[in-house]
Amino acid sequence: MNRDALVWCLIAVTAIAVVAVVALVARTRALAAKKEHTEAELRHQLLAADSHLHASRAELQRFRVEQDATLRAAKEAAEENTKAVLKGAASLLQSLAAEQTTLLDGIQRKYGGHTVLSDLLDVNHANAQMARKAQGIAVMCGAPLGRRNRPASVYDVVRSAQGQIRNFHRVAIMQQTSLALKASAVAPVALAVAELLDNAASFSQHDAPIEVTFQRVQNNLCIVIDDAGVSMNDEERQRATALLSGEIAPRLSQLGTQPRFGFPVIGLIARQHGFKVDVTGVSRYGGVRAVVLLPEELWTMEEIPPVQPVPT
After folding, report:
1. Which residues contact 23 (CB under 8 A, 6 or more apart)?
2. Burial class of residue 64, CB neighbours in 10 A (0-12, 13-18, 19+)
3. How far apart, in whole angstroms, are the C-alpha atoms of residue 212 and residue 226?
4. Cβ atoms of 306 and 295 closer than 8 Å
5. CA distances from residue 147 to 18, 40, 141, 155, 180 in whole angstroms, order as listed
6. What's the whole-model pTM score?
7. pLDDT (tens digit per residue) in 4-50
């Protein structure tokens, strides 16, 4: 009897265990299915979120591109408008300077022997400086340079440039030369040399010498300007080289409240007219050596006697 009861107990326990195992398996399968469903739902939501994020990024990038384009267009429009205003003002100043030069020339011819002549020469010299500044601004704003109809000796071109700076008496042209610049090169080279001489005078002591020499190197004619001013550091040389190459054209707004048009103007006209300017050399005085390198297309061996200075 006890044996039969034990058997039935074992059978009952076994049945309960089987039922429990079956229930556990079923629950495990249900949990696995639910987990798989949940994971699938999460993957779907993740893909949707990633797609939405990608679309948002694309929209943000498109907005940034449009904003950058709008800002560039606004800056370019402002730059062009500023250039148009400055070009008009510079042209007016050039016209007034030319008119004043004509008047002064007439007065000098009429009253050449008068004691007031020296004062008139000073006024004419100041007028030449104003005309050069106006010309540089006009060129920077897109205006063309005036064109000469005749070639001119290199000596006369440099002497003309010398007369367009404030401290012209400090410039010494160390030699004569009868080599001539072709007509198309006269105006741009004169302006470039005047700006270089003005720069040399501005960054050296008031009594320091500025020497100009001429050299022929292979097929090039070089105008060499040596000053006794402050030499440039590496960063300044790199910036000057970039500006003088004409490869970068700074905006007018980048020139500061007291803009320096010199190097940007030189770089622009040098690139347009096919010559090069270098200021990385060191002069024998420890200052800056500036070299205007003119290829053979811009000068000629034709001898044009330089204009002799008027005796004083």
Report:
1. none
2. exposed
3. 7
4. no
5. 110, 79, 17, 18, 15
6. 0.68
7. 777 677 777 777 777 777 777 778 887 777 888 888 888 888 888 88
pLDDT value of residue 302: 64
209: number of Cβ within 10 Å: 16
Q: What is the pLDDT of residues 184-222, one digit of tens each?
A: 999 999 999 999 999 999 888 888 889 999 998 888 999
Residue whose tokens read 């960063």? 235
Distances (CA, A) of 26 to 15, 30, 33: 16, 6, 10
Cα–Cα distance measured from residue 222 to residue 292, given in angstroms and rounded to the nearest whole number: 5
3 state DSSP class of 282: strand
Residue-level pLDDT at 173: 94
Place of tokens 């500044």: 133
3-state helix, strand, coil in the chain (%, to 5): 65, 10, 25
Which CATH code of 3.30.2290.10, 3.40.50.450, 3.40.718.10, 3.30.565.10 fits the domain covering 151-300? Answer: 3.30.565.10
Q: Please, are residues 208 and 228 in contact by the beta-carbon 8 Å criterion? A: yes
Q: At residue 171, does pLDDT exceed 90?
A: yes
Per-residue CA distances from 294 to 104, 172, 215, 279, 306 (Å): 34, 21, 10, 15, 19
Collapsing DSSP states into helix, strand and coil, what is residue 311? coil
Q: At 88, list the tokens.
A: 């008009």
